[in-house]
Amino acid sequence: MAKLDVVRVPVLADNYVWLVHDPESGETLVVDPAVAQPVLDAADARGWTISQIWNTHWHGDHIGGNAAIVAATGATVTAPAAELARIPDVDRPVKEGDVVRLGDHAATVWEVPAHTAGHIAYHFADDGLIFVGDTLFAMGCGRLFEGTPEQMFRNMARLAALPEDTLAYCAHEYTLSNGKYAIRAEPDNADIARRLAAVEAMRARGEATVPTTIGQERATNPFMRAGTIEELARRRAEKDKG
Ligand code: ZN
Ligand code: FE
Fold first, then answer.
1. Lower Cβ count inside 10 Å, N or C end of the chain?
2. Residues near 151 by Cβ (< 8 Å), separated by ≥ 6?
């Protein structure tokens, strides 16, 4: 199987939309199109036609481009079955364990509730990639709008169990803010200090810090590293205060 091409499309203030292209089948999908035009342009520039949209959750900055991309390309929409009431015109509602495909590449759907009640991730196990939406961020996790610390704790444990070279594609550039909190949470963690310095330099140069890897998150993510549900809850509450 040829390697998937993954292209980052930065939109709005800090969203990343991911275009995923399979060179063998020629198929292209987009994960969480916040908006349409920059995504259509990025596909056009490479001679790709989007045939599928995969959403991780119902928030507007993840589905806002669906309708216009469908109108322009006829793409099908795959989205969490649990959020059908909040995502218009879903062709394929999916739940835990369902398999969705791009060409011969298979992704398994994970239910990772907490940021929203029906949030899902798409795991390409054979490709070593996972699209995590707003569940995992580099050195952070999503806010608990519709779920509990216990749910997020389980999500973090499940993600942490992936091979360490698995690439995690997050939907936002939040790494600098997360890193500043991470060093407050774990002042003696040299891996966090090193990563924060690297991220500060990258952001000063205008570079993206996503995707991340599961190995980096195990070493530097204070939410993935929380030893108990209570510790995760406390860290999440502290981070929310800024
Ligand atoms: Zn969100
Ligand atoms: Fe978001």
1. C
2. 113, 114, 144
